[in-house]
TrEMBL record:
<feature type="active site" description="Proton acceptor">
    <location>
        <position position="35"/>
    </location>
</feature>
<dbReference type="InterPro" id="IPR000056">
    <property type="entry name" value="Ribul_P_3_epim-like"/>
</dbReference>
<keyword id="KW-0464">Manganese</keyword>
<dbReference type="GO" id="GO:0004750">
    <property type="term" value="F:D-ribulose-phosphate 3-epimerase activity"/>
</dbReference>
<feature type="binding site">
    <location>
        <position position="66"/>
    </location>
    <ligand>
        <name>substrate</name>
    </ligand>
</feature>
<feature type="binding site">
    <location>
        <position position="66"/>
    </location>
    <ligand>
        <name>a divalent metal cation</name>
    </ligand>
</feature>
<keyword id="KW-0479">Metal-binding</keyword>
<keyword id="KW-0119">Carbohydrate metabolism</keyword>
<feature type="binding site">
    <location>
        <position position="35"/>
    </location>
    <ligand>
        <name>a divalent metal cation</name>
    </ligand>
</feature>
<feature type="binding site">
    <location>
        <position position="174"/>
    </location>
    <ligand>
        <name>a divalent metal cation</name>
    </ligand>
</feature>
<comment type="function">
    <text>Catalyzes the reversible epimerization of D-ribulose 5-phosphate to D-xylulose 5-phosphate.</text>
</comment>
<keyword id="KW-0413">Isomerase</keyword>
<dbReference type="GO" id="GO:0005737">
    <property type="term" value="C:cytoplasm"/>
</dbReference>
<comment type="pathway">
    <text>Carbohydrate degradation.</text>
</comment>
<keyword id="KW-0170">Cobalt</keyword>
<feature type="binding site">
    <location>
        <begin position="174"/>
        <end position="176"/>
    </location>
    <ligand>
        <name>substrate</name>
    </ligand>
</feature>
<protein>
    <recommendedName>
        <fullName>Ribulose-phosphate 3-epimerase</fullName>
        <ecNumber>5.1.3.1</ecNumber>
    </recommendedName>
</protein>
Amino acid sequence: MQIKISASILSADSTQLGNEIKRVEQAGVDLIHIDVMDGHFVPNITMGPFIVEGIKKITNVPLDIHLMIENPDKYVESFTQKTDKDDILTFHIEATDDPLSVINLIKNRGLKAGIAINPDTQGQVVEKLLGAIDMLLVMTVYPGFSGQAFKKYVCEKIKKLREIAPENLDIEVDGGIKPETIADAASAGANVFAAATSIFGKDDYKDAIEALRKEANENSYQFMKSGGSL
Ligand code: DX5
Ligand code: ZN
């Protein structure tokens, strides 16, 4: 599976957002991770559709939009005004009773659909949806803030989900990803890595991204499909 690094702009200098995005783009990042928080689903408020539209104007790097909001179905349209087929819109399984209809709404808007799952949510909850999505985002911290410590126990869930997922499904991890923790997530089966602090907290973004990519590549998951279910 292709290893992809997704720069979470939650830790970027917000007064220099355009420049920060240019810098990670030049540093070779694969995705721009945008954390959308509503103050209800998570105890923090961040960015909305207006910022997503602005970012779309200044970069060709695909967007990895992580919705941490209640009622995601109501906001799919406003977050997809300027997106295209390479962008991913991800919502939380805990935030809706009808995930399949949200997936369809997103796909009908012409972009990729992702589902996110919190650290303590059982993998079974997403099992039947794995064939319908383009990406599964497994949280390795409780969503809400950057700079938290990686929860290693989540790797067991990643492993089980990777074993039953379609082979081409991207599995992203998000929270506490740094060169010291990425190997655990990669060997469990993740291939997309969101990182805020370990990129924007460094002086040299290229070095930071390369350090993550190197560790992930060297420890990437080896496919041995056994089939079955969780
Ligand atoms: C947390 C966000 C993450 C966060 C990651 O709720 O979804 O994307 O920005 O930050 P770090 O990489 O610092 O853990
Ligand atoms: Zn995120």
